[in-house]
């Protein structure tokens, strides 16, 4: 029985390590300042991060005076939130899982926030979270052309990826319990 217990514990640790290693990073847009006009340079902020497929960006803000509008590159450049926005977020705590390569553009639609206060950010998703191979020098990862729209995940809902991780952990735990029970 001790051998089964040891095997079960080792298997659980290996599974936890595997599942943790495949999780993406979580980035709070604007860091501690959040999504605001309080002197945050969002272009600089985005340029200091490497976003990967599987990562999550979180917009925290006062939803009485801010929102998050996903727009096309053209509308990003002109701060136009009225011309066919891709998505409109206004919960004050919006979580977006980055599910594919590309550049995603977000602006605030409140008056003067984007145009004069530069409350806008471009998130470039360049690699997969599990990709540990560096790109050769001088090469760029191709990005899809046209509108790139990652699905917005409801903050209270688990993503399919996290659901699969939790299911995998439960299966390992159930297997261990069953093995201990049988032996």
Automatic annotation (TrEMBL):
Coiled-coil portions: none
One Pfam assignment: Cu_bind_like
Domain of life: Eukaryota
Matching PROSITE patterns: PHYTOCYANIN
Stretch list, region Disordered: 129-153
Signal sequence range: 1-24
Record keywords, A-Z: Glycoprotein, Metal-binding, Signal
Biased amino acid composition, Polar residues: 140-153
TM stretches of this protein: none
GO cellular component: plasma membrane
Protein name in the entry: Mavicyanin
The species this protein was found in: Sesamum radiatum (Black benniseed)
Lineage start: Eukaryota, Viridiplantae, Streptophyta, Embryophyta, Tracheophyta
């Amino acid at each position: 029985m001790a051998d089964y217990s040891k095997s079960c514990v080792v298997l659980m640790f290996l599974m936890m390590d595997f599942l943790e290693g495949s999780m993406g990073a979580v980035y709070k847009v604007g860091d501690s300042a959040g999504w605001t006009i309080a002197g945050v340079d969002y272009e600089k902020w985005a340029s200091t991060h490497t976003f990967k497929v599987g990562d999550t960006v979180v917009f925290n803000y006062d939803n009485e005076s801010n929102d998050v509008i996903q727009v096309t590159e053209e509308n990003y450049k002109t701060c136009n939130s009225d011309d066919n926005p891709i998505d409109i977020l206004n919960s004050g705590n919006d979580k977006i899982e980055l599910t594919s390569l590309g550049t995603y553009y977000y602006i605030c639609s409140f008056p003067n926030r984007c145009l004069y206060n530069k409350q806008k950010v471009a998130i470039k998703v360049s690699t997969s979270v599990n990709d540990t191979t560096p790109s050769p020098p001088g090469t760029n990862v191709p990005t899809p052309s046209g509108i790139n729209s990652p699905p917005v995940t409801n903050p209270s809902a688990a993503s399919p990826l996290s659901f699969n991780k939790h299911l995998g952990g439960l299966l390992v735990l159930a297997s261990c319990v069953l093995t201990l029970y049988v032996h």
